[in-house]
Amino acid sequence: MTGIARRFVVVPLTLVGITLVTFALLHALPGDAALVQAGTSRGASPEALAAMRHQYGLDRSLPAQYADWLARSARLDFGESLVDGRPVRAKIAEALPVTLGLALLAAALAFGVAVPLGAALGWLDRAPVVRATSSALYAVYALPVAAVALLVLRAGAPWGARTLAGMLPAAAVLALAETVKLARYQRGALLDALAADYVVTARSKGLGAAGVVAHALRNALLPTVTLLGSELPALLSAAVIVEQVFGLHGIGMMAFDAVMTRDVPLLLGITTVGAVATLAAVLAADVAYGLVDPRLRGRSA
Amino acid sequence: MSAQRTLWRRFAATPGARAGLAILAVVVVAAALADLMPYGPEAQHPGGISAVLAPPSHAHWLGTDDRGRDVATRLVHGARVALLVGPLAVALYVLLGVAVGVTAALGRRVDFAVGRVVEIGLMFPTLLLLLAIQGVTSSTSLAEVALAIAITQWPYVARLTRAEALRVAALPHVEAARAVGAGRLRILAVHILPLAVTPALTAAAFGIGQAVLFETALTFLGFGVPPPTASWGELLAQAQASGLAPWLLLPPTVAVAAVVLACNLVGDGLRNALSARSSGGAGA
Q: How many helices and strands in chain B, by DSSP H and E?
């Protein structure tokens, strides 16, 4: 089995594994999962509790309960929110566009800045300005997201924005760490490509600087494209903080609220969706890799 | 002795590696001497309402927080939290990650299983999983926060160790051990593990910085180290809650960034020293 074909065999296994983790989390709850799922933790009579256990299948064996959990997860049915009783699926669907917009904006910013920046750093190689910039990038990479978000907010960025333009400062904060990572990666990739035989040949035939970079850039883009795909979990993580600081009602803010209110069904629903989205992004990156690199195209068949 | 000296020379030759060590040393000393600060970490200044959220002054170099506590004192005490949670979390997940990752060298089926488990672990966005763990367990002690971070991070070490273990398993000395009849577990423990652990050591240095970032994020959101314990994340949360006062916002920002930067620089140095060892060692 090669790359992509292998992935599609393994993906169902990974999906099952994700539901196993959330199932384990549900059963790691102190006390009775029945009470949490039923949404009533206090004041229920023993008979009512027993009826509730039966209704939610909690009097059955663990494997039977897991089978039920798996079947429900497959339909993206995570039950109802304990706070307002609305289906978790509907609540997530409402918040998803905000986070998706934020993440895509951040990814576009990170990619748009990092590729030219990394390429420039690679092209100038050992110039003093490169060393200074690299050091600065390294320091920026160490900043906590919350602090950067608060600093940007203090500088006058809007709070609780509803438009994409209003979300731009938040997206820039979200993009910061990724930009540094991608730029460093892009620089290394370009240095590798510049040292490759085909670029040396092109140079020796008299190709100018711009032509050489364009030549090398195409291959140097490969690792960057894949990296962007595998960076979705980091983006989603940082989104929790950025959304909370900038007052954006996306998935991250919803996860924050869910912990605040101990809304376990909502919390596990968000965790599952986050993991599945990551899996999708990794697969998309694989496919994109195949599109950029023609050598990989035929192999998946 | 000379091998150690070579390692040190390669480490020290890495730009910034020694500066990273120096920064960490300063933070460790500050944390150790935190009790020498003029105020207690939870002592509230007896100046009434005027002493609350006071800007930096001669008495309070970094001002006071929303309960009139000395920010400089709480900043120094916060270093203790970072230096406890970071290394504890990393120690836990490096042990687990290496233990799981190295078993991949036992055979193709074990490797497949390890690969799948690790991949599943890598799918969860760290902070979402951390929130889910904190949401269902409501754990708040330092050790529990470190454990939660470890649960989310071990797959990254396992992935590194797995790749290295598979590489080492194909080296001639392992084949030789197999040829003379050494058992599978003995080969794993004696001939593969000591070499396969190298990338995990480098990852551990970077990991301490990452763990400090995660602890800061969790505590900032209110689900990490609980008040009134002084921590950098709590200072940031105070900055947010009290109108973004710069004396509450900047000190923890600089402190976290300095520790994370130092860990990354030391990690770079370790990587250079150790990778030079493994590639040089093969030829020697």
A: 12, 0
CA A47 to chain centre: 44
Grouping H, G, I as helix, E, B as strand and the rest as coil, residue B33 is coil
Instruction: Mutate one of B108, B136, B256 to test the A interface: name it (highest A CB count within 10 A).
Output: B136
What pLDDT was estimated at residue B279?
A: 47
Q: Which residues contact A258 (CB under 8 A, 6 or more apart)?
A: A264, A266, A267, A270, B131, B135
User: Could you report the per-residue pLDDT of A249-273, keeping only the tens digit for each?
Assistant: 999 999 999 998 888 889 999 999 9
Q: What is the pLDDT of residue A31?
A: 59
Tokens encoding A167: 């979300």
Q: Verify whether the Cβ–Cβ distance B131 to A255 is below 8 Å.
A: yes
User: Tokens for A144?
Assistant: 């906590």
Q: Which of residues 195-254 of B touch A (CB under 8 A)?
A: 209, 213, 216-217, 220-223, 232-233, 236, 239-240, 244, 246, 249, 252-253
CA within 13 Å, CB half, B241:
13
Q: Which residues contact A105 (CB under 8 A, 6 or more apart)?
A: A164, A167, A168, A171, A174, A175
| Gap between the terminal Cα atoms of chain B | 17
> Which ranges of chain B have pLDDT less than 50?
279-284
Token duo for residue A191: 């240095």
B9, two tokens: 């020379």
Q: Say if the Cβ atoms of A245 and B240 lie within 8 Å.
A: yes
For A290, the token pair is 């195949």
pTM for the predicted model, two decimal places: 0.90
Residue A210's pLDDT band, with cuts at 50, 70 and 90, is confident
Residue that the structure tokens 């966005």 belong to: B125
Q: How far apart are CA B69 and CA B89, in angstroms?
A: 29
Categorize the per-residue pLDDT at A161 as very low, low, confident or very high, splitting at 50, 70 and 90.
confident
Among the listed ranges A123-127, A151-155, B161-165, B244-248, which one has the minimum average pLDDT value?
A123-127
Retrieve residue A171's tokens.
Answer: 């997206």
Please calculate the CA angle B153-A267-A42 and round it to the nearest 5 degrees: 125
Residues B275 and A169: their CA atoms lie apart, in Å, by 40
Question: Which one-letter amino acid corresponds to residue B167?
Answer: R
How far is the C-alpha of A190 from the C-alpha of A120, rounded, in Å?
Answer: 9
Contact A30/B137, CB-based, under 8 Å?
A: yes
